[in-house]
Amino acid sequence: MDEKSNQIVISLLRLGAFLTREGNRVVADVGLNQQQYVVLNYIYAREPVCQKEICSSLLFEKSNVSKIIKKLTDLSFIEKGTSSDDGRIHKLTLTKKGKEIINICNDRFNCWNERWLKSLSEEERLLAIVTLKRLGSLKDIAK
Questions:
Q1: 140 has pLDDT over 70
Q2: Rama region for 31: left / alpha / beta (φ>0; ψ in -120 to 50; rest)
Q3: In degrees, to the nearest 5, what angle opens at C-alpha 54 toward C-alphas 133 and 136?
Q4: What separation in angstroms does the CA of 133 have from each of 21, 38, 130?
């Protein structure tokens, strides 16, 4: 790997670790970790959804998503319903409690994001979006 490519990957790994740590800190007092929040937020934005869709879109392992769904169900943040198209498929939706929690967490993340990224210009923000989307689109090529 050339040095610039190596620097990109190392920077992304460090940034991922930082975001995971800070994400855990932001939602810890509501009984969640960063990955659980990401799944809860995904369900909130697209409900009803099935587990397979979550795995595919978020690139999480099936076993990890199963554990997260169990935890979110145990906390009464989500509930499972049966798909009208296929009784074998469970669709996930937020409960009233889950909607209250996701609104609290989203408000916190919005504040945190604004503090963290406030020094970036509009142009830098747009460039970051484009670059990160492009890197994300290369995930299948890297296999």
A1: no
A2: left
A3: 15
A4: 22, 18, 5
Give CA–CA dist 112/104, Å, rounded: 12
Quick: pLDDT tens for 88-139: 677 899 999 999 999 999 999 999 999 999 999 999 999 999 999 898 887 6
List strand residue ranges (DSSP E) for 7-139, in order.
78-82, 90-94
CA distance 35 to 41: 10
The two tokens of residue 63 are 């076993």
Which residue(s) pair with 130 in the sheet? Answer: none
Residue 15 parent element (H or E) = helix 3-27
Q: What is the pTM of this model?
A: 0.84
Query: In sequence order, which residues have a C-beta less than 8 Å from that of residue 78 and are 6 or more positions away?
Result: 40, 43, 69, 72, 92, 93, 94, 95, 98
Structural contact between residues 91 and 83, judged by C-beta atoms closer than 8 angstroms:
yes
> Count of alpha carbons within 13 Å of 39, Cβ hemisphere only?
29
pLDDT-derived band at 80, boundaries 50, 70, 90: confident
Which residues does residue 79 pair with via DSSP β-bridges, in sequence order?
A: 93
